């Protein structure tokens, strides 16, 4: 340590508010955090639903999984609006389910986003490589990661403002493709749904199998809750940002399915790496092609940036609550960001990216996500039992309780079945990993957990306590 | 050397510059501030206030 080291004794902490993340986010930032992470799924990945279930199967999976996410956001937002802490579902789990569940949920969030981040930066490199054979993907992969990490390191507001702009541009490119097809003039329309689409080539089981890829349309929207601690007004920003985000995605998903299904044959679409870009190529309109190229790159950048923000905040929260070594809970004195957690996760994401097993990395990300969704449904049922309406004021109240939570649990179990049909070994391996992590936590780590630090919100005691 | 090869090198240089700055700032911060500042927690009463119970007030 340097002799010029600054301590709390020599600096007036009241002036600098050390240890606190900045409260600078509004509803638009929350929208950008959620939609920014997810939008990449409309540019790639979702189309494997067509390979599994055909065009109609994909549409059914898209809407069924869309319903899953509507219920998820409803549950998530109600609980999240009373927990103004970074960590999202992790913070919810610690108040509602306890330390072991919180540890698992925190770990699942970190892996969900760190792996998604790895996939995003790899895809950026692959897309840029298509410009010319002399273009090497590796420097662009490193540059993207460096740029986004530095942005996140220096502050959440600037990061999410950039995310807001690039997400909006990427979203607009989907509309450019839609209007480029002239769908509104039947005689001139480029869409040929009758020729390009299929029915249900593999029957109803194909629809269930398509569910796991239908997740791509929305995976990560639940990350909106991770910005709760940094909202100027959590009770307003979180519900408005998250609910408008899910509506944005439902509209974008429907347009994506409609346009691509009318431009690209279902067999080719089911195998495509860049379905929206491929649909743009099918229009043969240079402006539309260029727009979708830019849109795909920006969607990947926005997603990777949101993933860095969310995985870092989850790791930070676990450290601050003593579930993992407290060292990771450091806040940058100048930028007010969880800088140690952000920097620590960079090499981990890079190592995932360079396994070369992209589909396996993504499968583990999705598996981590659906385990969280299952727990959110259970948490919602328990939350309303512990704190009935009137017992604790909420920023948002999910209507029709308990149906959203019950639908969430049922639909998530259906996704598990779909996952089993496609990735049974991954399902088993991922489950064993979380069981082993739980054993480690109970045997070796739990004794270090400071229960006074762990729970700090001044909630009233639950009913029947 | 083609323009694309040059752009590859420019991307490498920018990436290393950004990672270099990140490492520099990380080490500087670790040396400049003590753990009690970096791991400090704001007064729980103020920090963990529930905005919903406060009528969604601005927390700035």
Model description:
The complex is a heterodimer of chains A (465) and B (60). With 465 residues, chain A is mainly α. Chain A has one domain: Amino acid/polyamine transporter I (Up-down Bundle), CATH 1.20.1740.10. Chain A is built from 18 helices and no strands. In chain A, α6 crosses α17. Chain B has one domain. Chain B contains three helices and no strands. The radius of gyration of chain B is 22 Å and the shape is rod-shaped. Chain B starts with a helix and ends in a 13-residue tail after the last helix.
Question: Under the CATH scheme, which architecture of chain A would be assigned?
Answer: Up-down Bundle
Contiguous low-pLDDT stretches of chain A (5 residues minimum) are: 7-18
> What's the SSE pattern of chain A?
HHHHHHHHHHHHHHHHHH
What integer value in Å does the Rg of chain B equal?
Answer: 22 Å
Helicity of chain B, as a percent range: 55-70%
User: What general outline of chain B do the C-alpha atoms trace?
Assistant: rod-shaped
Q: Could you say which structural class the secondary elements and strand pairing of chain A correspond to? A: mainly alpha
Number of domains of chain A: 1
Q: How helix-rich are the residues of chain A, as a percent range?
A: 55-70%
Structural class assignment of chain B: mainly alpha
Roughly what fraction of the amino acids of chain A lie in strands?
under 5%
Shape of chain A: globular
What is the straight-line distance between the termini of chain B? 54 Å
CATH class of chain A: Mainly Alpha
Q: Main sheet of chain A?
A: none
* Tally of individual helices of chain A: 18
| Radius of gyration of chain A, whole Å | 22 Å
């Amino acid at each position: 340590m340097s002799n010029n080291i600054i301590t709390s004794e020599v600096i007036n902490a009241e002036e600098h508010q050390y240890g606190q993340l900045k409260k600078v986010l509004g509803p638009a930032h929350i929208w950008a955090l959620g939609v920014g992470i997810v939008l990449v799924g409309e540019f790639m990945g979702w189309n494997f639903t067509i390979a599994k279930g055909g065009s109609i199967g994909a549409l059914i999976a898209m809407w069924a999984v869309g319903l899953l996410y509507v219920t998820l956001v409803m549950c998530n937002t109600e609980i999240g609006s009373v927990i103004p802490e970074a960590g999202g579902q992790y913070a919810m789990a610690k108040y509602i389910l306890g330390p072991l569940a919180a540890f698992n949920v925190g770990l699942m969030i970190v892996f969900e986003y760190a792996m998604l981040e790895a996939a995003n930066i790899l895809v950026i490199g692959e897309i840029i490589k298509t410009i010319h054979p002399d273009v090497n993907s590796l420097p662009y992969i490193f540059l993207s990661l460096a740029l986004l990490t530095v942005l996140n390191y220096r502050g959440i507001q600037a990061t999410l403002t950039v995310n807001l702009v690039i997400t909006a541009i990427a979203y607009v490119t989907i509309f450019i493709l839609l209007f480029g097809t002239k769908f509104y003039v039947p005689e001139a329309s480029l869409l040929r749904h009758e020729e390009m689409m299929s029915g249900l080539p593999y029957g109803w089981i194909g629809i269930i199998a398509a569910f796991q890829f239908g997740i791509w349309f929305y995976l990560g929207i639940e990350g909106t809750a991770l910005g709760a601690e940094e909202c100027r007004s959590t009770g307003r920003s979180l519900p408005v940002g998250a609910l408008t985000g899910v509506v944005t995605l439902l509209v974008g998903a429907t347009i994506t399915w409609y346009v691509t299904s009318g431009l690209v044959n279902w067999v080719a679409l089911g195998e495509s790496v860049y379905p929206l870009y491929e649909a743009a190529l099918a229009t043969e309109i240079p402006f539309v092609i260029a727009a979708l190229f830019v849109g795909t790159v920006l969607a990947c950048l926005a997603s990777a940036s949101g993933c860095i923000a969310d995985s870092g905040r989850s790791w930070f929260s676990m450290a601050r609550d003593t579930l993992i070594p407290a060292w990771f809970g450091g806040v940058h004195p100048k930028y007010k960001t969880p800088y140690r957690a952000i920097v620590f996760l960079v090499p981990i994401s890079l190592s995932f990216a360079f396994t070369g097993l992209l589909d396996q990395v993504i499968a583990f990300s999705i598996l981590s996500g659906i385990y969280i969704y299952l727990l959110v449904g259970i948490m919602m049922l328990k939350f309303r039992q512990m704190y009935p309406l009137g017992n604790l004021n909420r920023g948002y109240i999910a209507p029709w309780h308990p149906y959203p939570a019950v639908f969430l649990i049922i639909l998530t179990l259906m996704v598990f079945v779909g996952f089993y049909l496609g990735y049974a070994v991954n399902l088993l391996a991922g489950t064993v990993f979380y069981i082993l992590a739980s054993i480690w936590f109970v045997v070796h780590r739990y004794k270090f957990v400071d229960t006074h630090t762990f729970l700090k919100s001044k909630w009233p005691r639950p009913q029947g306590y | 050397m083609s323009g694309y090869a040059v752009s590859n090198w420019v991307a490498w240089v920018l990436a290393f510059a950004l990672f270099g700055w990140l490492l520099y700032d990380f080490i500087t911060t670790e040396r400049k501030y003590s753990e009690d500042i970096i791991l400090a927690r704001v007064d729980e009463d103020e920090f963990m206030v529930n905005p919903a119970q406060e009528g969604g007030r601005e927390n700035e």
